[in-house]
Amino acid sequence: MAKEEGRQEIQLRGPVRPGGSGPDEPVALTRRQVRDSLWRVNALAALTFAVVTMSRPLFSVFAAEDLGAGATGLGVVAGAYALVPLFLSLPVGGLISRWGERPLMVAGSAGLAGGLLLAAASLSLPWLVAASLVAGMAQMLMVVCTQTLVTSLGEPREREQYLAWFTTATSAGQLVGPLGGGFLADHAGFRATFAAAAVLCLGGILLARRVHTPPTPGKAPELRAQAGRARELLALPEMRLAILAAFSLIFSLGVNQSFYSVYVTRVLGFSTSTLGMLLAVRAVMALAVRAYMRPLVALAGGRYRVLFLAMVAGAVALGATPLLRDVASLTVAAALLGVATGLTMPLSMLAAANSVPAAERGLAMGVRLTGNRLAELSSPLLFGPLAEWVGLGPAFHGAGALLLGAALLSLRWRHGLDDADRLAAEAPDPAPARAGTRRWGASRRKQLARGAGGPGTPGVPAHRAGD
């Protein structure tokens, strides 16, 4: 049993920092370091999402009410937040390979604070667009870095639980943020709310500075090489499954985010309090179900089955919404949609994390996030004209049908999460003894190495080819 100062170690097989004894030397993080990093990165994720959800919805309202922006201006403000991250997610994966997650998380927290302070000081629409641009890029940094870090800690058997805790933390932030933002905006105004959110980011900087991260290669691949490797990753069933599940859910939820409040308040005539209750039910269910992800996987007999059923549940909830007329049935649909969201996103992240060795996990998360941002941008382009042309009902039906079709299409790549099941079953218990190096199944080596077998294999960095 290997111990360091009486603490058990987790051995991470990977590259070492400059000055190490060699690229294949195992690098150990103690269990205490892993535990400390987990709670800090979870706290950082919760804080980041609380800050984002308390401030981002106010950008449009602030632009319209205080700066006199029209519909086009509001679109520019919203688009600036999401458009640039669409193109920068892949390069961020390379920066993680060069510098590691810690400095980028510090930069992300500082950038988010800077963007919010700029929003608080904005006297014209161009300044608010610039603030939206900075805040959007900073949030993208935080998302890619925190996801990469949390999927790089522990053995495959532990990774699922770590992701459940991580996504629970982000859901908690998303639940608390809008409540705090709305209260502050009502009582102190938009500028004070932006400033308060910026102050909270200082806590994120402190948390990020104290996170323990695995060593990095110290060298980032060129952008062209990253793009080529990203195309190779897209050929893996794990990545296809991860992107399909996340993209289809986010794309389909676009109709819910755009028209659900209109349907509940204007079409059905319910109060805004009822609308808030329905949204809270969805958020609480998304938060609660993640704590039971492991038992659900055991009950269903595999991660893919849970993912498939979650996507089908989301499709039913979305497609049935226009048929529901009473609060009870709407509550059931909201709860079902919350369960679908709470399970699909972490399982999608798990599929992406298990598709690559640790050195390329930042790139994999960047590829997945690019798909998510593309879904956010493209969904209104489809469902907006569709709802205007044929009405709200068919738009909801179409979103449900699209998500159901994606669930059926995912059957082609179900082995992506079957591999995760196998890796979890093969992994040794991370208990008193030193855990072995991460194990990648023979099929994974074949997919990554493309039939070659040693350092220098095309598509696999030399320092990771043996993993």
Automatic annotation (TrEMBL):
Compartments, as annotated in UniProt: Cell membrane
Main location, first listed in the record: membrane
Keywords: Cell membrane, Membrane, Transmembrane, Transmembrane helix, Transport
Location of the region described as Disordered in the Swiss-Prot/TrEMBL record: 1-27, 424-467
Ranges of compositional bias, category Low complexity: 425-435
Transmembrane regions listed in the UniProt entry: 41-59, 71-92, 104-121, 162-184, 190-208, 241-263, 275-292, 304-324, 330-353
One GO CC annotation: plasma membrane
Protein name: Major facilitator superfamily MFS_1
Organism from which the protein derives: Thermaerobacter marianensis (strain ATCC 700841 / DSM 12885 / JCM 10246 / 7p75a)
